């Protein structure tokens, strides 16, 4: 299967992508991983992306599209893939259509993870990270530490990242609504969209996603 995963920040896309890709036996292709891999390997696209990033500029669509195209042409993606974070706007969606058309394949589904905006803010703004080890993550509501502000694992100080502040989260949501959400209508016109609620336990959401994809 060839799937695009869409949803606002805090919808759990990364978590669901990993589970779905494993269940479907297809590679999980995330924009973040694409950038890290190309930059660490020193590819032409990676170096170009890095130059924009160092200058504090947005990486052009053409660079992101090129990275995604190269990754989708790898042998392990011959029978399908799950795209997470790409396409991010309609221009990228149109480019993806052209890439697939050239390869004589097409998307099977666009899975839209739906989460109320207030829940997104609650999920992200409630995160607390350990200063000693960023892998130690807590949440003031869903996974509260035994002692407020103290990591259960190592006793380090817990803090809220600047990116996780409510103000920043709401700005990220505005960007999502403006730039990314329009691709849902774009794909809906192709009868590809399956919308599911991303509320509930991880395995419950995965089950709903698998049921939707079976359609």
TrEMBL record:
Catalyzes the reversible transfer of the terminal phosphate group between ATP and AMP. Plays an important role in cellular energy homeostasis and in adenine nucleotide metabolism. Keywords: ATP-binding, Cytoplasm, Kinase, Nucleotide biosynthesis, Nucleotide-binding, Transferase. AMP binds at residues 31, 36, 57-59, 85-88, 92, 161, 172. GO terms for molecular function: AMP kinase activity; ATP binding. CDD domains: ADK. Its EC number is 2.7.4.3. Transmembrane segments: none annotated. Consists of three domains, a large central CORE domain and two small peripheral domains, NMPbind and LID, which undergo movements during catalysis. The LID domain closes over the site of phosphoryl transfer upon ATP binding. Assembling and dissambling the active center during each catalytic cycle provides an effective means to prevent ATP hydrolysis. Monomer. The keyword Cell inner membrane does not apply. Residues 30-59 are annotated as: NMP. It catalyses: AMP + ATP = 2 ADP. GO terms for cellular component: cytoplasm. Pathway: Purine metabolism; AMP biosynthesis via salvage pathway; AMP from ADP: step 1/1. Residues 127-163 form the Adenylate kinase active site lid domain. It is found in: Cytoplasm. One of its GO terms (biological process) is AMP salvage. InterPro entries: Adenyl_kin_sub, Adenylat/UMP-CMP_kin, Adenylat_kinase_CS, Adenylate_kinase_lid-dom, P-loop_NTPase. Belongs to the adenylate kinase family. This is Adenylate kinase. The keyword GTP-binding does not apply.
């Amino acid at each position: 299967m060839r799937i695009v995963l869409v949803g606002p920040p805090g919808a759990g896309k990364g978590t669901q992508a990993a589970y779905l890709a494993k269940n479907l036996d297809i590679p999980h292709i995330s924009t973040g991983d694409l950038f890290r891999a190309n930059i660490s390997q020193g590819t032409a696209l990676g170096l170009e992306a890095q130059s924009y990033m160092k200058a504090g500029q947005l990486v052009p669509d053409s660079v992101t599209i090129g990275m995604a195209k190269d990754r989708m042409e790898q042998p392990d993606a011959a029978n399908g893939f799950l795209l997470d974070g790409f396409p991010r706007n309609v221009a990228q969606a149109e480019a993806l259509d052209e890439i697939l058309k050239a390869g004589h394949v097409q998307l099977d589904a666009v899975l839209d993870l739906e989460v109320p905006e207030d829940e997104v803010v609650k999920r992200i703004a409630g995160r607390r990270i350990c200063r000693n080890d960023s892998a130690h993550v807590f949440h003031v509501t869903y996974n509260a530490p035994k002692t407020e502000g103290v990591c259960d694992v190592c006793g380090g100080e817990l803090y809220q990242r600047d990116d996780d502040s409510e103000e920043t989260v709401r700005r990220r949501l505005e960007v999502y609504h403006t730039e990314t959400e329009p691709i849902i209508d774009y794909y809906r016109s192709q009868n590809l969209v399956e919308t599911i609620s991303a509320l509930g336990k991880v395995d419950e959401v995965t089950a709903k996603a698998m049921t939707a994809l079976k359609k």
